[in-house]
Write a structure and sequence with these properties.
seven-stranded mixed β-sheet; 16 strands; alpha/beta; five-stranded parallel β-sheet; Rossmann fold
Length: 365
């Protein structure tokens, strides 16, 4: 008997990432993202996922959002679907909720969504824990514990679901205040829980704010500063990296991506295009710290450091920094740049600066 599965695509999720907007919630933010040259992120990810599950299409009945909320993507890979909702050029979170409500009425056994934390909150408010839900990471902020690590992990989870092998857990849905986020403040609120099909090593943890470890961060910063050369340093978000600029009496956006040259900040809250322009004819390095507990180095909250930027800088010029507590609390590190070949090259055992002149080796999977 075929399993009934729902699929919802948030067509604007993730568009603010590379242009440095830290989200795409709200019509004005979307307009600004488009003006800055933002391109849709979720449609191509949905197509890639659907191409992977196509070989098992005889085992499930797929219900999708109408139009650009899933129907169009399914048509591209010739999967027969039942569209729900209205075909609209501009969609809102209310469309997501209405489609989810219809899916509940249709008695779907699993809902797969493409989006970020905002979409997860919409489903939390509608679906609650009535049916299992799994997110395919496609937004800018993905701090909730309801997302697969990437498209490959989502495919694995879906396959295990069809085979009846998944276990289910209630996972936190976290909402990030976008306005505070743009003002360089991280304000998190647990909005509820979703029932999630879990396959070991395939679902991310919720973002965790770990202890400050201020002395450890200062030691790490001293080592980075003492070893700086005449390269441009692209500085990722977070308190560990921010300690570097703090010790040099330089400004830093806590949640943005900045650039430093000869120990002076030359650009704040930069987007992808600005980063590429700055490093165009210069040697460069990237300094990043993984997200607490989740362990993502790239692909969560720092999409400005795009595959193009990473390739221009070079994988050998990536400097990983993390406090000892973060390294201990995080089993593995992850990457999800959106470029599968680059992700493959970024994986493996990597050196992480954890103190002054001290490194750990950590596996990126």
């Amino acid at each position: 008997m075929k399993r009934k599965v729902g699929l919802i695509v948030n067509p604007i999720a993730g568009m603010g990432g590379r242009v440095g907007l830290k989200g795409t919630d709200g019509e004005e933010t979307l307009k600004k993202a488009l003006k800055l040259g933002a391109k849709p992120v979720t449609p191509s990810k949905a197509v890639k996922f659907l191409e992977k599950i196509k070989n098992r299409k005889e085992e499930f009945e797929l219900l999708t959002g109408a139009g650009n909320m899933g129907e169009e993507e399914a048509k591209k890979v010739n999967i027969e679907i039942k569209p729900l909702g209205l075909r609209k050029e501009k969609t809102t979170r209310e469309d997501t909720k209405k489609i989810a409500e219809q899916m509940l009425k249709e008695k779907v056994e699993l809902i797969i969504f493409f989006g970020g934390d905002g979409t997860a909150v919409d489903l939390c408010e509608t679906v609650d824990a009535k049916v299992p839900v799994i997110g395919v990471p496609s937004g800018v902020k993905m701090y909730s514990g309801v997302f697969a690590l990437n498209i490959d992990s989502a495919f694995k989870i879906f396959s295990e679901f069809l085979d009846g092998k998944t276990e289910f857990e209630e996972r936190e849905v976290v909402e990030v205040n976008e306005q505070a986020f743009r003002e360089d403040r991280l304000v998190l609120e647990i909005k509820g829980y979703l029932k999630v099909p879990v396959v070991k090593g395939r679902v991310q943890n919720s973002k965790t704010l770990l202890p400050s470890d201020e002395e450890n961060k200062i030691s790490i910063a001293k080592w980075v500063i003492d070893n700086m050369n005449d390269s441009v340093y692209i500085l990722g978000p977070g308190s560990t990296v921010s300690t570097i600029t703090k010790m040099l009496n330089q400004p830093k956006t806590f949640l943005g991506v900045d650039a430093m040259y000869k120990k002076r900040v030359i650009g704040l809250d930069l987007n992808e295009k600005e980063l590429l322009k700055i490093i165009n004819d210069k040697k460069a390095k990237i300094v990043v710290s993984p997200l607490g507990k989740q362990g993502f180095i790239f692909g969560r909250g720092n999409q400005q450091i795009s595959p193009e930027v990473i390739k221009k800088v070079g994988i050998k010029n990536i400097i990983l920094v993390a406090t000892k507590s973060k390294v201990i609390e995080t089993p593995f590190f992850h990457v999800d740049t959106g470029d599968p070949e680059l992700d493959r090259k970024l994986k493996g055992y990597k050196r992480v600066i954890v103190d002054y002149a001290e490194e750990y080796v950590k596996k990126v999977i």
